[in-house]
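Worked example

This section walks through a single chain of length 531. The input is the sequence exactly as stored; nothing has been trimmed or padded.
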Amino acid sequence: MKLYFYGAARAVTGSCYCLEINGKRILIDCGLKQGQDDNVTGNELPFYARDIDYVIVTHAHIDHSGRLPLLVKNGYSGQIFATRLTAKLLGIMLPDSAYIQERDAEWDNQKSKRAGRPQVEPLYTIQNADETLKRLKAAEYNQEILLCEGVRFRFSDAGHLLGSACIELWATENGVTKKIVFTGDLGNIDQPIIRNPELIREADYLVTESTYGDRSHEMPEDYTKLLAEVFERVFSRGGNVIIPAFAVGRAQELLYFIREMKSRKMVKSFPDFHVYLDSPLARAATRIFSGDLLGYLDADALDLINGGDEMFIFPGLELIESGEDSKMLNEIKTPKVIISASGMCDAGRIRHHLKHNLWRPESAVVFVGYQAGESLGRRLLDGAKRVKVLGEEIAVNAEIVKIEGMSSHADREHLLSFAENFAPMPGHVFVTHGDREVTELFATELRSRGFAAHAPELMEVYDLAANRVLVEGEQVKKRTAEDRAVSPAYAELQGAARYLQETIAKSKGMSNRELRRLAEQIKKAVDKWKS
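Given that input, the structure is written out below as tokens.
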């Protein structure tokens, strides 16, 4: 009974864990590494996809699901379990991610052709994403599922995104049963639309996220009032409000707040302002958020719908589809709100709007979510005076606003509260999905409160039956430009090399005869290839 840490180990994206039990390998999440994490390690799979028997996904955000099409491309042929709403959201998010992979590869190949460099393949294609969606198997919260011999699990509401879940998994091997809880991304409390995270009472092991494990959210009394004050200030000087927002979850929360703002007539100077949701993905997600949400909404959202109102539709809202329509927004001279992706400003249409507004002192850029280190969003929040956007250097004259506390992640206090709700304490807590320094800080805080806890390194293997580290992980080194330029096929070869190293490490307790036999087989395979 072993737990492998294949992602989000001392990193804030790329969640991927594997439980090995009774000869089966069960993957928990298969996320894409993004932002600064993408500069630290690549997105190749550090295992053979064909060796995985089952996949369970905590939620639809790409840093938890974005390598699923790569998994299928590399030979995975089993089922992928998710909640009903997560399955629906994956139906739009994975093809969108694949489109970005194809587009980026095409762009890189245009530059490579001019420079005489080899062509590259996309990490995966839209066809791979479509094949992945056929493998989805949807479930509801608290529905217990017998996965295979000795393994059952259920989803509980993580309160992070519609459909997001913690995974409660019971594993039995050789007469020993252990319960492992994976938080996925644990939600903040009192968010609009979705419910608070469900508390869980029992676990032998806890794998917890720690995105905000080193800080507390400053909770404003009224988000709507705070946003209205920003809008009032910017509109009165004739500027635009530009809001970088993640297309799924955060964009819909903003529409929810602005609908309330409009209904309460909170912006006095320009009450009929227009809001442009400029993201095809956000538009598609908003349709899903407006569908059958029974069993997923909080009480206020249910009351709103039962009263016959729309959660996200209001006068002055326009949903932008085409790139041409997006560019035309900058020809509109009247003050307006533009909500666009990506949330960290490093990709997507938001860059176009920043290029046209950052230099304008009358405009404002409003940040409402986490900004990873080295992202354009983080640089703006840190006070950069000039930034490069779409190849052009832009002076930062616009007002930069951070709405504190408007996060879909639990903060330090709520992460601690979730852990301390277990009675008795878990036998061990694995701190993951946070910046390197944050994971260690949060693990240290847990230990000061009596927990056995540590922040695993990438590729660590933990023996759950014996409650000890079996294989030490490795600190990931910064990737060079040469590393980032390798083809997916070469990256797969590198993954095979790590798989071989993992196999050798696991064979330490074998007999000398078996070890020599394994060594001979490895040498024969290499010699055969050389010949």
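What to look for: The longest strand covers residues 165-173.
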